[in-house]
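Budget justification, computational time. The allocation requested in the original proposal was used primarily to generate structure tokens for proteins on the priority list. As evidence of use, we reproduce two of the resulting records. The first is shown immediately below.
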Amino acid sequence: MALNFAASIKQKKEEVPITNVQVEGVVVAKLIKHCKDCLPSFVTGQLLGLDIGSTLEITYSFPFPNKSDQDVAGSEDDDASYQLEMMRCLREVNVDNNTVGWYQSTYVGSYQTLELVETFMSYQESIKRCVCIVYDPQAAAQGSFGLKVLKLKEKFFNLFKEGKVSATQLNQEGITSKDIFQELPITVTNSSLVAAMFSVLQRDSQADQGTFDRLHISEPDSLEKNLEFMMDSVDEYHSKVYQVSQYHRMSQRLEVQHQQWLQKRKAENASRRAAGDDPLSEEDPNYTPLNEPSRMESFLISNQTTNFSEKIALAGGQTLQKLCVMDSLYK
């Protein structure tokens, strides 16, 4: 009875979804420094912490070695050995060494890729509740937080695991491009000693250069980059649409040829039956239905295009607000 009760408690605990991610301030500072120091290269690192109910606590992180500094042969084995050695050392000094995900840097929000989905699938084979923290240095330089916490939605995870990512299967399940990733709220926490230090170091609220920098209008280069990436995403999406249209056109042509062959074979079999001969097989040995193309990349490109357009709209809105403020100051 006690074992059954304990098993039911454990099962209920595992079914609680993650609704919040709590990150230590030291972890945020470390991953931001790692991503900025290695610009323009993209970097990744491991996230360690505790999985407590609906809250995922991230208490420590360490960077992965830059692959450009390693030999290509055997790099995966070296990375695995490095991670195991790091976690063993952390365990010896009583630091949380439970893997809860990874972090990675991105550029202009272009993180929704097939590689990210495959990395999630690889992690979730052993860690069911894992997240990815994406840091965008350019967004942070423009005054945004720059950090996003992502996880795969459960319904999409199950479909992708089974290989059901065709248009027909996704439509049957009601999966759209917005049902791939889920962005979780992030809370940055600090210890009592760090909070006390900040309260001591905090100056009186006076206007300084940083205050006036907030009135700077968005740089044309950033808007130009977002527009350029959005146009590239639209072109890629059109190429995927063309591939789908080609698939339907080829499938229709192949089906017409198959029906013509089948009608011809049926007429031939009718003649053979009339002559008392055995009918021939009505299975076309040369007929092989075409495989329906995956909609995975189309969904990701659609999400990227939406992301770029939202950034452009946000930057334009903020610029208009700043112009209104500056205009009222000059009057």
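The second record produced under the same allocation is shown here.
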Amino acid sequence: MTLLDHARAQERDDAAAKHQNDEKHGLLITKKDARAKPPCPPTKKLRSQAFILDQMRHSMKFFSPERAIDESGGYFHFFSEDGSVFDQDTKVLVTQARFIFSLSVAAEHLKDPKYLKAVEHGVSWLATAPLRNKDNGAYHWALKDGRPTSSKIFTYGLAQCLLAYAAALRAGCKMALPFLNETWETLEQHLFVERDGLYAEEASSDWNIDKYRSESGNLHMTEALIACYEATHDQKYLDRALLVADKICNKAAGQTQGLVWEHFDENWTPQLDFDNDNEALKIFRPWGFQPGHQVEWARFLLTIDRHCKALGQARWWLAPKARFLFDVAVEKAWDDEFGGLCYSIDLDGAVCNGDKIFWVQCESIGTAAMLATITKEDKYWQIYDKLWRYSWDKWVDHEHGSWLRRMSREHVPYFTEKTKLSLCVDPDFHMLGAYAGTITFMRDAGVA
């Protein structure tokens, strides 16, 4: 079963036409003209903590505090390929929160005080500035020239805020603690549905809950809850992360062959014919099974498993389910002809959207390394190596830092900006999270 995404199809056609026109007029950068890429490091280096730390530095070379901080408040959100800011007036809740997360992970692992200072700057603005909706205790979704353009409330967005405050606290930003507690209580009061053990996904600005339910908001709630546990050592957060993961990865996924579907109704029945007509939410609500979300869930299940075992509270299903989700995603989504993991697969396991997106590749790299360290199976290291060599060639921006964002199946870029409204709102949040998981599991396993 497939669902034609007309907007994305048009986007692909436009990009292909532009590519052909540029090629015809000699405007494409050929291998002869392009700056030579450095060779991909040998296997031993790829599988080292030092290499992963270098990749963190590579990301933060682009999204550096010096470049990102808006002295008038928060961060700049929209950057061209070379790092220049092309929109100083638009601020997006998810981008602001994800910036705090990325800078917090950098502060933890790269040990430069400038990152913690930048985190404190971001936390203060997120918690008290115009993105806060003082009328309802939540946040506006986006601002233009300091004024809200949308005030609808999304669990996805609040999850990013909770994660930001937890990561900041974990990195040493003590001012984040009251906002972590406040965000937890807001979610608990308005969006957690006790009978389901899961979070509703969206509400109007007066807290009228929509019937739509999403795995994605619950995915990022799980991520945030793990971070809350790591920052506070309060077991209620780990218990809730475990509950949500169980409900999504076992109960809900049990309706769709064990894989995690994206869209549900208020009874958590899968909406298999879901069609998203909201352009601003397209990147958050695609159709089909998302291989990137399967491997992201796998990463969080492995992290929960690690914490449960440390407490003597091991759950037998966590690691096997993580392996299943990762194994199926990689098997079904890998593109044998052009390389890389495709964006979406349908109910029969066939690729229904062959686009390539950066975060799917880097999340898979991180989860492969984590599985390799806990299973001791070489096949996961082989997948890790293959993904790194592919990404090094196709995705890493060796000149400016960070990675490219989205390409067609044949690796024709749709846009060159590193962040772009409604198309990419990620200042390397996925990368920093995957890298941090990789380093933690390498360290546990004694991998230098």
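A brief technical remark on that second record: The first strand starts at residue 78 and ends at 79.
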